[in-house]
C-alpha cells in the first residue's frame, strides 16, 4: 500500500457533505488559500497530513525537502508512541476524496482548475479543523504554520488488493502550480465574475459525484471484496513459515517506510495488527504472537517486508495482509502489499480415549469413546485384535466413529480394541483391553519363617485381580492383627500387602493368615507360621513346693524354650545336684524333678537352669521344697454301682489331712471328661447323689481329694441296666478303590441279658441323605461296604441295637476311597471318544430326573454286576433305567428290557476279555432322560483265556470220546465178521 491509504470513508463523507454548504464567496477565498497552499503542497495519509515533495533540482527546493523529511520522522515517532498505527484503518482521507473530485474538471480550463482546487481546499480545511487533534500535522515555513493539503489527487481502484485509494500525483501538482502562476496576475473581480457564471452548475455536478463516491467507499469499507490473487500457504503445526512480501520503492529510490502485518478475524471481519516495524524503533508484536514473529533477514532471498512466523498454532490459520506505508512520497504503482492465506495442518491427537483396561462381566454393556483433534479432521477407525470391527446386532459404531458400543458382552467380545485416528498428516492409535472381571488370586503366598526374638519379620502376600483393587487383611490365629493388643504398636501392613512385625517377641509365634479380595467372589487366604526362637528361660518360680512322704512327687521347673529344651541343671542347697547318680530322682522331659519315693532327705532349697540351642536366660529363684504326709481316704466309693433308668444312686467318699497340712478338698468328676448334670447331681460332705438316672449316666466316676501336698484319686463304675446300647467307639476304617472296611469297639449293650446288632450309616461328603447297611453276621464288629466310587470322600457312623431299640450313634469318621489307577498309554492304545459324542436329552422334552450316581462295575463269579445309586434330584421322575455301553465310538443299549426304578443293579454275563468297556446309566422319565457320568471298565484278559481253555478241554474230550466210539465200532464189526465166518 502506498500513500493516502485507508481513508476513513464515513468521516470523509461527513466532511464532504459539510463542504457543499460553502458559499461562492467562501469558495473564492478558498481558491486564494489553495493558491497559497500550493507553494507547500502536501498529501494526507491515514488521517494525517503528509508533505508531498515533487522532484526539484534547485538548492532551495532540496533544502525544503530535507526540512520536510525531518518533519516526517518526528511525525512517525509521535505516531508510533501513541499507537496511531495500531488501529486507524477506518479513518478517512479527506484530501484524497477532494482530489478525486477536482480530477473530474478539465485541466485546460484554468479558471475551473482553480475552482476545483479551491473546492478541494475548502473541503480539506473543514475536515482538518474538525479532526485537528488526531489527523492534522503542521508544517512550519518562515515561522508561519500552514495546513498541508492536497493540491490534486487522482482516485484509483486497486483490483489486486480489493480496496479503493487516492494517490496524489506529482504531475498533477506541477500542472496545478503552473496554472496558479498564470492566474496570479488576474484580478479578484475578474476571477469572481468568471466563477459566478458557472458556480451553481459546477457545485451541483461536484456534489452528485462526491455523493456517489461516498456510497462506493462506504460500501467498500464495510464489506471489502475477497483477495483475488492471494498467496496460499500450508504449514504443519509447530513448524515455521515465511510470508514473502516485497517492497518496491518509488523510482527504485529507498525512502523511509513503516511495515505493518495484519490478520483478519474471520468472525468479525476486523483486522488486527500482529507486527509493526519502523527502523530504529522497537517493534510491536500482537497478542499471542510475542516471540513468534520477526522480519526475515535482509540477506535472505525473500522480500524486505517478509515475515517469519514460528511455532505455528492451529489458531494461526486465516488471512494475513502485508502493508508498506511510505512516509515522504507516494509510489507510482500499487505493488507494496500482499494478501496471504495460511492453512495449518496438524497430525491427529487424542482428546478422549477409553481406559487401558476395562473390566466387565458377561452380559454387561459398554461404550468405548475415542475422540481426536487435528487438521484436516481425523478419521476414526476401530479394530479388534488387529481386525476391523464388524458391526452386528450387539456391536455398533456411532457418532461419526467416535463411539464403539457393545450392548451385551459375550465371550467372543473379550479382547483388545484399538482406536486409530488418521488424516493426511499422520495417525495415532490407542488400545483398550476388555477383560472379564475376576476375584483376587494370591500369586505369592506368605511362607513359614523363623526369627530370633528382637529381630524384624516380613510376610509377603502378593495378589492379582481383575479389577486390581485388591484389599489385603492379616490375621493371627483367627484375630485381626490390629486388634491383638500385644502387636498393636509393632505391626505394619504395607500398600503391597506385606505384613511387618518389628521387633518380634517370644509370644508372637503362631499362624498368620493373609486374606485378599477385590469384591468379586469369595476372598482367598493363605497362611504361614512364625517361629520365634529365644534362649530357654524360667517363667515362674514358686516359693514353696511340697513332696508327699513315701509317695511319688514332682518339683516343678516352669520353663519356656524355643528351640525345644535340651537339658536342665539343678542345685540343692547351693550344690550341684546329679540326679543320674541317684536312683530315686529322675529329670523329666519338661525339666522337672521326679521323686519316685519321697523321703525326708529330699527336703531343701532348689534352683533350676534351663538350656536350649540358643542358650539360657538364667536360673530360677530359690524354691523351698518341704516333705509332708499326703491326705488319706477314710471312706472310698464302691468299685461298682448298678442301677436302672429312673432310679437314684449315692456314692460316698471322704479323706483326712496329715499333721501340719490343710484339710483336703473332695470333688467328683467323670473319667471321660464329660460334665456332670448339675440339675440332677448333688455333692455334700464328699458324697455324690445322682437322681433320675439316664442311659447317658453310664460310666466311670472319680473321687478326688487334694491339698497342697498331694492329690489322691479313688474310682468307681456306674452301670445303668435295661437301656438301649451305648455308642460304639474307636471307629476306624481302610479304603480301596470301590470299598471301605470298618471296625469298632462295642458300647455297653444295656445289660447282661441284652444282645446288640449294628447298622452302618454312610453318605458321600456334602450330600444330605444317608444310606444304611445292616452288619452281618449278628454281633460282628467289622464290615466291608462295596460299590463305592473311587476317589470320593465318604462319612461313616455305627449304631448299636438291642431288644429295647436303637442305641447311641458313634462319632462320625471320614474316609476317602482310592483313585483308579489309569493304565499306561502305549502306541497302540486308542483314545476314548469325546464326551460330546454322547447325545444328551434336550430340555424341550420336558422335566427329567437327576443323574444316577456312583456307577460301578464289579466282577462276580457268575458275571459282571453293574450298580448305581438313585439320583439325588427329582428321583420320583424315574420311570425306568437304561444302560448304554460302547467299546468304540458307537453307543449301544445293553439291557433288553426296561430296568425298574427300584432296581439299582444289572448282571451282565458275557463281556469280552481284554477289551475296555464304557458304561452310562440313563434315568428315564416319561419323555426325557438324564445320564450318569461315563465310567470305564477294562475286562481282564483272563476271562478270554478261560473261554479258550474251556474250548480246548471240550475239544480234547470230544476227540477221546470219538476214539472210544471208533474202537467200539471196530470191535463190533470184527465180532460180526467172525460170526459170519464161523457160520459159513
From TrEMBL:
<dbReference type="Pfam" id="PF13927">
    <property type="entry name" value="Ig_3"/>
</dbReference>
<dbReference type="InterPro" id="IPR013106">
    <property type="entry name" value="Ig_V-set"/>
</dbReference>
<dbReference type="InterPro" id="IPR013098">
    <property type="entry name" value="Ig_I-set"/>
</dbReference>
<feature type="domain" description="Fibronectin type-III">
    <location>
        <begin position="727"/>
        <end position="820"/>
    </location>
</feature>
<feature type="domain" description="Ig-like">
    <location>
        <begin position="224"/>
        <end position="324"/>
    </location>
</feature>
<feature type="domain" description="Fibronectin type-III">
    <location>
        <begin position="848"/>
        <end position="942"/>
    </location>
</feature>
<dbReference type="Pfam" id="PF00041">
    <property type="entry name" value="fn3"/>
</dbReference>
<dbReference type="InterPro" id="IPR007110">
    <property type="entry name" value="Ig-like_dom"/>
</dbReference>
<dbReference type="Pfam" id="PF07686">
    <property type="entry name" value="V-set"/>
</dbReference>
<keyword id="KW-0472">Membrane</keyword>
<dbReference type="InterPro" id="IPR036179">
    <property type="entry name" value="Ig-like_dom_sf"/>
</dbReference>
<keyword id="KW-1133">Transmembrane helix</keyword>
<keyword id="KW-0393">Immunoglobulin domain</keyword>
<dbReference type="Pfam" id="PF07679">
    <property type="entry name" value="I-set"/>
</dbReference>
<feature type="compositionally biased region" description="Basic and acidic residues">
    <location>
        <begin position="834"/>
        <end position="846"/>
    </location>
</feature>
<dbReference type="InterPro" id="IPR003599">
    <property type="entry name" value="Ig_sub"/>
</dbReference>
<protein>
    <recommendedName>
        <fullName>Protein turtle</fullName>
    </recommendedName>
</protein>
<dbReference type="InterPro" id="IPR013783">
    <property type="entry name" value="Ig-like_fold"/>
</dbReference>
<keyword id="KW-0812">Transmembrane</keyword>
<dbReference type="InterPro" id="IPR003961">
    <property type="entry name" value="FN3_dom"/>
</dbReference>
<feature type="domain" description="Ig-like">
    <location>
        <begin position="439"/>
        <end position="527"/>
    </location>
</feature>
<feature type="region of interest" description="Disordered">
    <location>
        <begin position="33"/>
        <end position="57"/>
    </location>
</feature>
<keyword id="KW-0677">Repeat</keyword>
<feature type="domain" description="Ig-like">
    <location>
        <begin position="631"/>
        <end position="714"/>
    </location>
</feature>
<feature type="domain" description="Ig-like">
    <location>
        <begin position="535"/>
        <end position="626"/>
    </location>
</feature>
<feature type="region of interest" description="Disordered">
    <location>
        <begin position="823"/>
        <end position="852"/>
    </location>
</feature>
<dbReference type="InterPro" id="IPR003598">
    <property type="entry name" value="Ig_sub2"/>
</dbReference>
<feature type="domain" description="Ig-like">
    <location>
        <begin position="348"/>
        <end position="435"/>
    </location>
</feature>
<feature type="region of interest" description="Disordered">
    <location>
        <begin position="100"/>
        <end position="144"/>
    </location>
</feature>
<feature type="transmembrane region" description="Helical">
    <location>
        <begin position="947"/>
        <end position="970"/>
    </location>
</feature>
<dbReference type="InterPro" id="IPR036116">
    <property type="entry name" value="FN3_sf"/>
</dbReference>
<dbReference type="Pfam" id="PF13895">
    <property type="entry name" value="Ig_2"/>
</dbReference>
Amino acid at each position: 500500500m502506498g500513500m493516502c491509504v485507508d481513508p476513513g470513508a464515513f468521516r470523509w463523507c461527513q466532511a464532504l457533505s459539510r463542504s457543499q454548504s460553502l458559499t461562492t464567496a467562501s469558495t473564492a477565498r478558498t481558491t486564494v488559500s489553495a493558491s497559497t497552499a500550493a507553494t507547500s503542497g502536501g498529501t494526507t495519509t491515514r488521517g494525517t497530513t503528509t508533505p508531498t515533495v515533487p522532484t526539484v533540482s534547485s538548492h532551495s527546493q532540496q533544502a525544503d525537502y530535507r526540512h520536510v523529511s525531518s518533519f516526517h520522522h518526528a511525525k512517525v515517532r509521535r505516531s508510533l508512541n501513541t499507537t496511531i498505527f495500531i488501529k486507524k484503518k477506518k479513518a478517512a482521507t479527506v484530501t484524497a476524496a477532494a482530489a478525486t473530485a477536482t480530477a473530474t474538471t478539465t485541466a485546460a480550463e484554468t479558471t475551473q482548475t482553480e475552482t476545483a482546487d479551491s473546492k478541494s481546499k475548502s473541503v480539506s480545511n473543514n475536515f482538518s479543523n474538525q479532526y485537528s487533534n488526531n489527523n492534522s500535522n503542521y508544517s512550519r515555513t518562515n515561522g508561519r504554520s500552514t495546513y498541508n493539503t492536497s493540491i490534486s489527487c487522482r482516485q484509483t481502484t486497486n483490483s489486486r488488493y480489493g480496496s479503493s485509494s487516492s494517490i496524489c500525483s506529482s504531475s498533477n501538482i506541477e500542472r496545478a502550480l503552473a496554472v496558479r502562476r498564470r492566474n496570479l496576475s488576474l484580478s479578484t473581480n475578474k476571477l469572481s465574475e468568471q466563477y459566478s457564471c458557472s458556480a451553481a452548475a459546477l457545485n451541483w455536478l461536484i456534489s452528485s459525484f462526491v455523493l456517489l463516491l461516498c456510497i462506493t467507499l462506504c460500501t467498500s469499507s464495510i464489506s471489502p471484496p475477497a483477495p483475488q490473487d492471494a498467496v496460499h500457504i500450508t504449514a504443519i503445526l509447530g513448524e515455521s513459515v515465511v510470508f514473502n512480501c516485497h517492497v518496491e520503492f518509488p523510482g527504485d529510490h529507498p525512502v523511509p517506510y513503516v511495515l505493518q502485518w495484519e490478520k483478519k478475524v474471520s468472525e468479525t471481519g476486523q483486522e488486527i495488527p500482529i507486527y509493526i516495524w519502523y527502523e530504529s524503533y522497537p517493534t510491536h508484536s500482537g497478542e499471542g504472537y510475542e516471540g513468534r514473529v520477526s522480519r526475515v533477514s535482509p540477506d535472505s532471498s525473500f522480500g524486505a517486508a517478509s515475515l517469519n512466523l514460528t511455532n505455528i498454532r492451529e489458531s494461526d490459520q486465516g488471512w494475513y495482509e502485508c502493508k508498506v506505508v511510505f512516509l515522504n512520497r507516494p509510489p507510482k504503482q500499487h505493488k507494496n502489499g500482499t494478501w496471504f492465506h495460511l492453512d495449518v495442518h496438524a497430525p491427529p491427537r487424542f482428546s478422549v480415549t477409553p481406559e487401558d483396561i476395562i473390566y466387565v462381566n458377561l452380559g454387561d454393556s459398554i461404550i468405548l469413546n475415542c475422540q481426536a483433534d487435528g487438521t484436516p479432521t481425523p478419521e476414526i477407525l476401530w479394530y479388534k485384535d488387529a481386525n476391523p470391527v464388524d458391526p452386528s446386532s450387539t456391536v455398533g459404531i456411532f457418532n461419526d466413529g467416535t463411539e464403539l458400543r457393545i450392548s451385551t458382552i459375550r465371550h467372543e467380545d473379550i479382547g483388545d480394541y484399538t482406536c486409530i485416528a488418521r488424516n493426511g498428516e499422520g495417525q495415532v492409535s490407542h488400545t483398550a483391553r476388555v477383560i472379564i472381571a475376576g476375584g483376587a488370586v494370591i500369586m505369592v503366598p506368605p511362607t513359614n519363617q523363623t526369627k530370633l526374638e528382637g529381630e524384624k519379620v516380613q510376610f509377603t502376600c502378593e495378589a492379582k485381580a481383575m479389577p486390581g483393587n485388591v484389599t489385603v487383611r492379616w490375621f493371627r490365629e483367627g484375630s485381626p492383627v490390629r486388634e491383638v493388643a500385644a502387636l498393636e504398636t509393632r505391626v505394619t501392613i504395607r500398600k503391597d500387602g506385606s505384613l511387618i512385625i518389628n521387633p518380634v517377641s517370644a509370644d508372637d509365634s503362631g499362624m498368620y493368615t493373609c486374606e485378599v479380595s477385590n469384591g468379586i467372589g469369595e476372598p482367598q487366604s493363605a497362611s504361614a507360621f512364625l517361629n520365634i526362637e529365644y534362649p530357654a528361660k524360667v517363667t515362674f518360680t514358686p516359693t514353696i513346693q511340697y513332696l508327699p512322704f513315701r509317695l511319688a512327687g514332682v518339683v516343678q521347673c516352669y520353663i519356656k524354650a524355643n528351640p525345644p529344651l535340651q537339658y536342665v541343671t539343678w542345685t540343692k542347697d547351693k550344690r550341684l545336684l546329679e540326679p543320674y547318680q541317684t536312683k530315686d530322682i529322675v529329670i523329666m522331659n519338661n525339666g522337672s524333678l521326679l521323686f519316685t519315693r519321697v523321703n525326708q532327705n529330699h527336703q531343701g532349697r532348689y534352683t533350676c537352669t534351663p538350656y536350649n540351642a540358643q542358650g539360657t536366660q538364667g536360673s530360677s529363684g530359690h524354691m523351698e521344697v518341704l516333705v509332708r504326709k499326703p491326705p488319706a481316704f477314710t471312706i472310698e466309693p464302691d468299685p461298682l454301682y448298678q442301677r436302672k433308668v429312673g432310679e437314684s444312686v449315692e456314692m460316698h467318699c471322704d479323706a483326712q489331712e496329715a499333721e501340719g497340712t490343710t484339710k483336703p478338698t473332695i470333688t467328683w468328676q467323670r473319667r471321660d471328661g464329660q460334665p456332670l448334670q448339675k440339675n440332677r447331681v448333688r455333692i455334700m460332705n464328699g458324697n455324690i447323689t445322682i437322681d433320675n438316672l439316664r442311659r447317658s449316666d453310664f460310666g466311670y466316676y472319680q473321687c478326688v481329694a487334694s491339698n497342697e501336698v498331694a492329690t489322691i484319686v479313688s474310682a468307681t463304675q456306674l452301670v445303668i441296666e435295661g437301656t438301649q446300647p451305648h455308642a460304639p467307639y474307636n471307629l476306624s476304617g481302610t479304603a480301596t478303590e470301590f470299598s471301605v472296611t470298618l471296625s469298632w469297639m462295642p458300647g455297653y449293650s444295656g445289660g447282661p441279658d441284652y444282645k446288640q446288632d449294628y447298622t452302618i450309616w454312610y453318605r458321600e461328603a456334602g450330600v444330605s441323605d444317608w444310606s444304611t447297611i445292616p452288619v452281618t453276621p449278628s454281633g460282628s464288629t467289622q464290615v466291608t461296604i462295596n460299590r463305592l466310587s473311587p476317589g470320593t470322600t465318604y462319612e461313616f457312623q455305627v449304631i448299636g441295637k438291642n431288644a429295647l431299640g436303637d442305641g447311641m450313634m458313634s462319632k462320625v469318621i471320614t474316609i476317602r476311597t482310592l483313585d483308579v489307577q489309569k493304565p499306561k498309554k502305549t502306541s497302540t492304545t486308542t483314545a476314548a471318544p469325546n464326551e460330546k459324542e454322547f447325545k444328551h436329552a434336550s430340555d424341550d422334552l420336558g422335566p427329567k430326573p437327576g443323574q444316577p450316581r456312583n456307577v460301578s462295575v464289579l466282577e462276580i463269579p457268575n458275571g459282571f454286576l453293574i450298580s448305581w445309586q438313585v439320583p439325588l434330584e427329582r428321583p420320583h421322575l424315574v420311570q425306568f433305567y437304561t444302560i448304554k455301553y460302547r467299546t468304540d465310538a458307537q453307543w449301544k443299549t445293553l439291557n433288553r428290557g426296561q430296568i425298574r426304578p427300584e432296581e439299582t443293579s444289572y448282571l451282565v454275563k458275557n463281556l469280552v476279555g481284554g477289551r475296555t468297556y464304557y458304561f452310562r446309566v440313563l434315568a428315564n422319565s416319561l419323555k426325557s432322560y438324564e445320564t450318569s457320568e461315563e465310567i470305564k471298565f477294562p475286562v481282564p484278559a483272563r476271562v478270554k483265556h478261560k473261554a479258550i481253555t474251556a474250548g480246548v478241554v471240550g475239544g480234547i474230550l470230544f476227540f477221546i470220546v470219538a476214539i472210544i466210539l471208533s474202537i467200539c465200532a471196530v470191535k463190533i464189526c470184527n465180532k460180526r465178521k467172525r460170526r459170519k465166518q464161523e457160520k459159513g
